[in-house]
Amino acid sequence: MLDIHLLKTFLAVAAGLSFRKAAAELNCAPSTVTGQIKALEEAAGAPLFVRSGRRVELTDHGRRLLGHARRIVDLEGEARRMLAGGDTTDLELSVRISESLGSRFLPGLLAGFRERFPRTRLSFATHSRHGLTRDLCYGITDLALILSEPFAASGVHMRMLCRLPLSVVVPPGSFPAGLSEVGPQDLAGVQLILTPKVWSARGTIEQALSEEGVEPLSVVECGSMEIVKGCVMAGQGVAVLPDFTVEREVAEGRLARLPWAHGPLSVPLLLARSAERPLTAAAKAFAEAATALFGEVEG
User: Fold this and answer.
1) How wide is the angle at C-alpha 78 spanned by C-alphas 7 and 288, nearest 5°?
2) What is the pLDDT of residue 46?
3) What CATH code is carried by the domain that includes residue 18?
């Protein structure tokens, strides 16, 4: 029989792939974690982790146990709440959402979700511990809202909620007065400051530049949209960013937003989850709140 306390320790180690981090999370000594994992491996009759120096990886047996362990722990929590006369829907929900998406849209998402699940413990992360696909498949993350073109990922189900508009973002007064759009010729000799690959928009822009024989001064890549905005405001170049990320700066006159001359640019907003693990009621409610909110945004 697999002890529930050992399974909780197993999940803590699997979440961070670290015995030391699990010990800190569980408020116990690393040696205690090591002993509990050893006891669980003996009970399971198979090794659950491979240790190589400081690296820790799940074995095939460990990966197979992971989903079952989480369901067992969730059920144990539900049983305790039921016996205590509490609400069995008061579970934890872990969501991956970028800082830019979260700061703009999370208040609206929470309002819709809390109407149905006022007591569910929510955990929001702005980045993945071990990669989004792995976090979803291992149960570390329940849902993810990401700005990206759909991509193939084994064990992950993706659904596009909407497409959010992108614009060329420039310092105020950097282009001739009255210019209503930006085309390839306007970017000749200009430094482009982009987030990595700028989703599908980068390829569209680079193709248009190539067709017209235009070369920008240089391309700077940066993973932070806040840093990109700061560079543009300082007059260091132009960028392509989602409209919602520059609303305040445009309203305050610190940035100007212009459409791309070759047609509108946009980026898909995807809702991702594990394809192998069924959604809890709380996860379904959050997904429905996101669908309702972003359907309104797109409209």
Assistant:
1) 105
2) 92
3) 1.10.10.10
